[in-house]
Amino acid sequence: MSKILTDIINAHGGMKYWNSLDSVEIEMSAGGVLFITKGVKPLNHARLTIFTTHPEVVIHDYPVTGQTTRLLGDNLVEIVDAVGKVLQVRNRPRDVFRKVSRFFHWDTLDFAYFCGYAMWGYITAPFLFLHEGVDVKETNCAEGYNKFTVTFPQTLPVHCGNQEFSFDKEHHLNRLDYTAEVVGSWAKAAHFCDSYQLFDGLSLPTVRRVYPKLLFNKPMKFITLVAIDIHNVIPNVAVTD
User: Fold this and answer.
1) Is the pLDDT of residue 142 over 80?
2) Nearest by Cα to 110 from 56, 38, 44
3) 64-98: burial string, b at 16+ Cβ within 10 Å, e else
4) CA distance 96 to 216
5) What is the pLDDT of residues 23-50, one digit of tens each?
6) What's the pTM?
7) Which of 34, 36, 120 shows the shortest CA–CA distance to 77?
8) Residues pairing with 233 in the sheet
9) Contacting residues for 83 by C-beta, under 8 A, at least 6 apart
10) Which sequence spans correspond to the domains of the chain?
11) Closest by CA position to 237, among listed 22, 51, 12, 10
12) Number of Cα atoms under 13 Å in the Cβ half of residue 59
């Protein structure tokens, strides 16, 4: 790692602490124009378990109380009841977004896939930069700010293969730019992070706002595509024998 990337990792809790975790529990609310256009209900204090070493996410009490939705990368998304009986399952969930109908409406499994992989990427960054197959290049260094172009392998479920991450003078993630490919090749977004808080040893932004992006990287801040508020975070230390 370069010194700058090391400083960024340390500002978020450090690699040693991150490697001691097996998952992170988050309580969050989310809504915005994207929810409205896809016919999806906003999340209100939803609880997610996000695994740190691999792209697996559990959404508790979703879509209804007593049911659980699980994402396993790009391979599978499923809904189970309180005793573990599979109620719905979809293999290769990302492939479904190619259908024209997804332009107008998302079903429960569509949204679970989108929410799961997106939150996994948000919570695991910048530690995700050190995942096998991820390529990180510093592209710009203005006074007090550092920008990186990050290329992700096809084995990881992310918005798109190439994304830009900007960090402020405190080495906190300030903005990330990407194309939400499951929404459409035109869905270029500017995603802003704010209100960092320390949860045990993990430092994370608790306010995230996503806006459509115009030419010259200008965000349209009068349209909030997605608004995410993190209410609580509980890092889970891995149990070892």
Assistant:
1) no
2) 38
3) eeebbbbbbbbebbbbbeeeeeeeeebeebbebbe
4) 32
5) 999 999 999 999 999 999 999 999 999 9
6) 0.95
7) 120
8) 26
9) none
10) 3-237
11) 22
12) 29
Are 84 and 78 in contact, with CB atoms under 8 Å apart? no
pLDDT of residue 241: 63
The residues with which 58 forms a beta bridge, in sequence order, are 49, 70
State the Cα–Cα distance between residues 193 and 65, nearest whole angstrom.
Answer: 30
8 Å CB contact between 156 and 134: yes
Are the C-beta atoms of 51 and 57 separated by less than 8 Å?
yes
Q: Average model confidence (pLDDT) for the chain? A: 95
Tokens at 143, concatenated: 């006074």
Cβ atoms 188, 175 nearer than 8 A: no
Helices (H), the chain: 3-11, 15-19, 33-38, 108-124
The pair of structure tokens assigned to 32 is 């915005």
Quick one: pLDDT at residue 46?
98
**Quick one: pLDDT at residue 216?**
80
Question: What tens digit of pLDDT does each residue of 173-224 get?
Answer: 999 999 999 999 999 999 999 999 999 999 999 999 999 998 888 999 999 9
CATH topology of domain 3-237: outer membrane lipoprotein receptor (LolB), chain A (2.50.20)
Q: Is the bond leading into 126 cis (omega within 30 degrees of zero)?
A: yes
Burial class of residue 127, CB neighbours in 10 A (0-12, 13-18, 19+): buried
